[in-house]
Amino acid sequence: MATRNSGDGALGDKEAAVCAPASKRPARDRIFETARELFYQHGIRAVGVETIASEADATKMTLYRNFPSKDELVVEVLREQEREYWAWWESVTACGCSDPRSQLEALFDAFETKACNADIHGCPLSNAAIELHEESHPAQVVSVNYKKELHRRLADLAHRAGSKDDDLADALMLLMEGAYISRVTLGPAGPARAVARSARALIRFHLDGCLS
Question: Are 22 and 57 in contact (CB under 8 A)?
């Protein structure tokens, strides 16, 4: 298990707390947040531990005290991004409406806003799955399990809304995944801006048998 060291030097915790500026976060937090940003902006394999340590105002030794390997750091970053996504999901589906169909529509309304954000560079877990595509890579395992859970949640809502099979969930997941890619390639004014409208058309088709 990684040691959660609060400083870069040899000072003890109390001495480090006294000497460090009030605004300076623990080294582990700095390394984690720096790695998360750099991985998302530049790709996981393009960013080395030397760069992460330097940008985080830390040393490689400190990085490896907190994260025994780069792969472990990558996995922790992806798991945190997964936790944040599910927290977002829960906040959207718990917005006061218990009807599964309305929850699906609310998800895609909120997703459209998320996908069109100016800082979006695609889904970080999809990006990791594409870049680190070896089946045995720990990041690939996290990404694949996340996507399986995403499909399961979509299928659960779709079935509770009246879908007799997984066709609606399949279509909605393809729409969600495609929206991220089109946002990266064609920008917020491209097809991603219509993802909520497209989701409603799919929902009407599969649940009501019509597109209009």
Answer: no
